[in-house]
Specification:
mainly alpha; endoplasmic reticulum; 37 helices; Leucine-rich Repeat Variant; rod-shaped
């Protein structure tokens, strides 16, 4: 047969050569008899050898029958087919490349063949074909990619190994740029990375590592946008190796592509945020996720607040340029299936970060805020994730306040609920965010209009000031307060925040008891302490729940007297030198009247000793309860604290402070024989020359500036207000007692 074929070649008798090949194919290789098929395969191989370099002219006729035999049920015959094709390819070399796809398809099937001899033969053929591809510069990569994309999803281990080996070979060929087609096969590679075989996983790791090296070397030719959602999917994989690898890729993508990744921020955050709460068993994933999170956050810049969301800022030929095309990636949330994400990834506009034209990406916050809101609302989410969410929101309010305030009404309730979190660190971040919302100029609505929430609308302007009351301050003093530099104007959300915070304390008494002081002290650090006390006092003045008002006033008073954060405010109240400080005192006093003992302590703090004495005289008309005596006991303990050092020293000046001593004696007379009684009694025994305590109505007032300044306050009106508030409390107690008595009667009946 070889001699006959050589003669035909010498005679250039093409028709006879084709006739010989046709007979070998139709009558032998495709025969029903197995031995005839074996003979036909051997004959085709011999014919190819005889043709030599001319075999390339007849490759289609030579290869097709051999490939058909790859599917034969007889393993021995499949081996003969593999051997025949090896000889055909070995002779033809580069001429077989136009037929590469059919050869690859056949080999991918033999790679998973159960017969070891067939598998061994296919490996020899595979190596030969790889050598040919490596040597050639005519490989049709474009035509091959669809087949590779199809075969890469095979679940057979041997087929997967075969696919990875070919990807590694193609990646190593300088003339073949497989990176351009990486989006087509990246998802399949991550699927293979989850294979049960350690060897295959290792091979896939190597392949992905090589691709990542190439991406770092040539970022300008990488289609980051087309692969973003593929990574988002695999960053959420249950397999640790897949998740870690995808997260490492995501980290590099964010750092290399920069703002090109912003349209996919919501999907990235969906994948990254849960990883931040991983324990030490997944420490590596957690660390990489943290870098991704920080890098993505840095991509948001102040210019994003100025861009018009209605106009697309990226225009690329043959791609959709509407807002819809840019906002698509933002819809990637945990509710979407992987298939939807995969389809979405293939439909995204292309971005080229290193092109000569500077590409700007419009930041659409809707998807980001939706993801952040979801993770903050989910009580099962770990502490570190919640902290990261709050940091993100804070960062967005700093960088893009104008756009973020459109979402404030929807975020505000969840931020208030977060104050009940178990973690102090979460509460601190939450307070920082709420403080930023309350103080940001971007939150100031037009004409002082308070944000939506009908129950929280304040009738007065949003600037914080004490409403003018008859006899309280002159008009000039009130005007001076409104524009006081020590009381900076807050935005519309500040007053809303204060109202809702007090509502939360009222509905969650445990929160007030456990974290109330902590929350208010932190707010005093983050915002203006005077504003906070001013506004809370103003709100509590109209509080209908008198019992809560009394408890809240007691809490605020304790903070005012004991917290180091309020040192400046205490000094301001202690002197009452300015109209603003006197106005603040009057505002606090009116609310402090909900609690008689705290009102006296406020007078002690502000050195209004005569008024304190007058108040104590009114205590005889009040219902003295155990709680009342307990508060008096605590006040005595406070007098012995460093806060009231100046008060104790003033006891040495009996002549100028007679009402201070009288007030202290009044407290002493209220107390039963207890440790507090003994403590105060011993203190008063240290007062020098008690005879000087006697005073008359003609006692000269102090010439100190403080007393002169405080004389502008109408103490008579304040005393009347105190009596009015206490009468309300007395009526409320009687009503509660009456309801309790009625309930008891019903129970008896």
């Amino acid at each position: 047969l070889p001699r006959l074929v050589r003669e035909f070649v010498a005679q250039n008798n093409t028709s006879q050569i084709k006739h010989v090949i046709q007979i070998l194919s139709q009558e032998f290789a495709l025969s029903q008899h197995p031995h005839s098929r074996k003979g036909g395969l051997i004959g085709l191989a011999a014919c190819s050898i005889a043709l030599g370099k001319d075999s390339g002219l007849y490759l289609k006729e030579l290869i097709e029958p051999v490939l058909t035999c790859f599917n034969d049920a007889d393993s021995r015959l499949r081996y003969y087919a593999c051997e025949a094709l090896y000889n055909i390819v070995k002779v033809a070399r580069g001429s077989v490349l136009p037929h590469f796809n059919v050869l690859f398809d056949g080999l991918s099937k033999l790679a998973a063949d159960p017969d070891p001899n067939v598998k061994s033969g296919s490996e020899l053929l595979d190596r030969l074909l790889k050598d040919i591809v490596t040597e050639s510069n005519q490989f049709d990569l474009v035509g091959f990619i669809p087949l590779l994309r199809e075969r890469i999803y095979s679940n057979n281990q041997y087929a997967r190994q075969f696919i990875i080996s070919w990807i590694l070979v193609l990646e190593s060929v300088p003339d073949i740029n497989l990176l351009d087609y990486l989006p087509e096969i990246l998802d399949g590679l991550f699927q293979i990375l989850g294979d049960n075989s350690k060897e295959i996983r290792k091979m896939c790791e190597v392949a992905l590592g090589e691709f990542l090296k190439e991406i770092k070397k040539n970022p300008s030719s990488v289609k980051f946008a087309e692969m973003a959602n593929i990574l988002v999917i695999h960053c959420q994989a249950a397999d640790d190796l897949i998740q870690l690898t995808a997260m490492c890729w995501m980290r590099e993508f964010i750092q290399l592509a920069g703002r090109v990744m912003l349209p996919y921020s919501s999907g990235i955050l969906t994948a990254v945020l849960p990883c931040l709460s991983y324990d030490d068993r997944k420490k590596n994933i957690k660390e990489v996720a943290n870098v991704c999170n920080q890098s993505l956050m840095k991509l948001v810049i102040p210019e994003d607040d100025e861009m018009d969301e209605a106009k697309p800022s990226v225009t690329i030929p043959a791609e959709p340029t509407s807002e819809e095309s840019l906002s698509k990636p933002e819809a990637v949330t945990t509710g979407e299936s992987q298939n939807e994400l995969d389809v979405r990834a293939l439909n995204q506009p292309l971005f080229f970060p290193c092109s000569c034209e500077r590409i700007q990406v419009t930041l659409n916050l809707d998807g980001i805020v939706q993801v952040l809101d979801y993770h903050l609302s989910d009580t099962s989410i770990g502490m570190m994730t919640r902290i990261a969410v709050l940091k993100w929101l804070y960062h967005l309010y700093i960088k893009t306040p104008r756009k973020m305030f459109r979402h404030t009404d929807s975020l505000f309730p969840i931020l208030l609920r977060t104050l009940s979190d178990e973690s102090d660190e979460v509460i601190l971040k939450d307070l920082e965010l709420l403080a930023e919302i309350a103080s940001s100029p971007a939150g100031q609505t037009e004409e002082g209009h308070v944000p939506s929430d009908g129950s929280d609308v304040r009738p007065a302007p949003v600037e914080l000031h004490v409403p003018a009351r008859p006899g309280q301050l002159s008009s000039s003093s009130t005007k001076g307060l409104e524009c006081s530099p020590s009381t900076p104007t807050m935005n519309s959300y500040f007053y809303k925040f204060m109202i809702n915070l007090l509502k939360r304390f009222s509905s969650e008494r445990k929160l007030l008891e456990a974290r109330g002081a902590f929350i208010i002290r932190q707010l005093c650090l983050l915002l203006n302490a005077e504003n906070i006390f001013h506004s809370m006092a103003d709100i509590l003045l109209r509080e209908e729940d008198l019992k809560f008002a009394s408890t809240m006033v007691h809490t605020l008073n304790t903070i005012l007297l004991t917290s180091s954060e309020l040192f400046q405010l205490r000094n301001q109240l202690k002197d009452l030198k300015t109209p603003e400080s006197r106005n603040l005192f009057c505002c606090l006093y009116r609310s402090w009247c909900h609690n008689p003992v705290t009102t006296v302590s406020l007078c002690f703090l502000t050195q209004n000793y005569k008024h304190a004495y007058d108040l104590i005289q009114k205590f005889s008309d009040l219902e003295v309860t155990v709680d009342f005596l307990t508060e008096v006991d605590k006040l005595v303990q406070l007098i012995e604290c460093p806060i009231f050092t100046y008060l104790r020293l003033q006891l040495l000046d009996v002549k100028n402070n007679p009402y201070l001593i009288k007030a202290l004696y009044g407290l002493l007379m209220l107390l039963p024989q207890s440790s507090a009684f003994q403590l105060l009694s011993h203190r008063l025994q240290c007062v020098p020359n008690p005879e000087l305590m006697q005073t008359t109505d003609n006692t000269k007032p102090s010439t100190s500036f403080k007393r002169t300044a405080a004389s502008n306050i109408d103490y008579t009106e304040l005393l009347q207000h105190f009596e009015k508030v206490q009468n309300k409390h007395l009526e409320a107690r009687h009503q509660r007692a009456g309801r309790a008595e009625q309930l008891d009667r019903r129970v008896v009946l």
